[in-house]
Amino acid sequence: MKSILVTGGAGYIGSHVVQQLRGRGERVVVLDNLYSGFADAVRDAELVVGNVGDQVLVSRVLAEHRVDAVMHFAAHTVVPESVRDPLKYYGNNTCNTRNLLACCAEAGVDKIIFSSTAAVYGALAGGIADEDTATQPINPYGMSKLMSETMLRDLSAASALRHVILRYFNVAGCDPQGRIGQRTPNATLLLKVACEHAVGKRPSLSIFGTDYDTPDGTGIRDYIHVEDLAAAHLQALDHLRANGESLTLNGGYGHGYSVREVIDTVRRVSGRSLNVIEQPRREGDPPMLIARADRLRQRLGWTPRHDDLEFIVRTALAWERRLAAAEHPP
Ligand code: UD1
Hints:
Helix content is 40%, strand content 19%.
């Protein structure tokens, strides 16, 4: 039986995909350097600890596990850090993707699913992006991913390779059964930070910008439950296995919530009064970023199951409580 190589499969989104792949009986090998991932998050899949930039290792894994499809999640993802240290992002995200593609080409792997980001669109004038919207990243993180997309397209045009690129919007929530979740230390993402505050890990919660041209003055994002996004990866794999053509697809629900709506939901679900501090805008934040997400539905037959902010918050909060209990046992 052939295997699927999942790079970054010990991380937040990768581990949810691995769990769904294993759930339907796929053979999976994870390659992760555990920089921001956790070995136990891969659960019953095989884990190889190492770097995507290590050509000898990657080629060996592809051959030994008879890999015929790759899902490539391994990357750094912190936008402000990418501004401070761009080469870290171009090295780990772009150069290492080039390396992975070279190994895949050599081994004859002809199906790749790639984790890209809404950050490729940059500061959108209208706040809503379809896949043909011009890509103009405003930070090295977004650019590092766009460069990888370009390599994938060029290589696909020149070889038998076919790919699905998924451009993630704001991924949130966790496995509803609480087996895995988001463990990123020093998180900056709104929903994670809000849940950490609700369980007492942080003394307060900031709203970055209350003077945007939006109905309540705060930023609007398209929050997608990680389980729905993970399901899209499995459908992308099925599409490529059925000889489907290469695709670039937005991963979002097609509507958004403001920062205040997210915080109100965390307050309601947690039953806690939150200490919210209104701050100036955070540099580089667009006012609104929403996916036009019809193509994902049409091309892959994807139907979201958890398009519900309250459900997203409930699963994220349950996971945060579990983490807090593990760190401070009674
Ligand atoms: C960004 C990237 C996204 C990337 C993600 C993870 C862009 C446009 N998007 O998402 O591609 O995958 O980071 O690194 O670059 N906010 C607060 N208080 C907080 C935290 C956030 O008010 O403590 C606000 C932000 O100003 C924003 C919204 O909440 O309006 C969402 O922010 P965040 O969760 O950090 O994600 P993005 O910046 O949208």
